[in-house]
Amino acid sequence: QVQLVESGGGLVQDGGSLRLSCAASGRTYAMGWFRQAPGKEREFVAHITWSGGSTYYADSVKGRFTISKDNAKNTVDLQMNSLKTEDTAVYYCAAGSVLSNTARSYAYWGQGTQVTVSS
After folding, report:
1. What CA–CA distances, in Å, run from 61 to 31, 83, 88, 117?
2. Side-chain half-sphere of 108: how many Cα atoms within 13 Å?
3. How far apart are the C-alpha atoms of 48 and 30, rounded to whole Å?
4. Residue 5 buriedness (CB in 10 A; 0-12 / 13-18 / 19+)
């Protein structure tokens, strides 16, 4: 069992930046970030391998978001720059044994952290 705890969400203006962090109690091959806006399905944002050697992003965030790992701290961070109002959502950290952009592929989930981008 792996426990995940997200932090770093908040309110930011359009064009601003936020950094999310996910602390993991154990080690898994793949870790990812997903988000869910009100009335919408949970969608993939980015994923990374435990080694940090492979990353992948959704087209909607490519070039603006960066996922990274700190193995010494057992954390996965999501640096979000040039934020837009459409990035507003609850952001979830996920962990699993398969590197995937599909939510059902991940066995472990954090509680989520709210990100709100105002115009």
Report:
1. 17, 9, 12, 14
2. 20
3. 6
4. middle
Query: What single letter denotes the amino acid at residue 81?
Result: N
Quick one: tokens of 49? 């391998």
pLDDT in tens, 23-80: 999 888 999 999 999 999 999 999 999 887 799 999 999 999 999 998 888 999 999 9
Please answer whether residues 6 and 110 qualify as being in contact, where contact means their C-beta atoms are separated by less than 8 angstroms: yes
Reduced to 3 states (helix: H, G, I; strand: E, B; else coil), residue 32 is strand
* Residue 88 and residue 117 in contact, taking contact as beta carbons nearer than 8 Å: yes
Angle, CA 79 vertex, CA 89 and CA 58 arms, to 5° = 60
Angstrom distance (rounded) from CA 96 to CA 90: 20
Task: Please tell me the distance from the alpha carbon of residue 61 to that of residue 12, in angstroms, as a whole number.
Answer: 16
CA 41, distance to chain mean position in Å, is 15
Euclidean distance between CA atoms 65 and 8, whole angstroms: 14
Tokens of 70: 């700190």
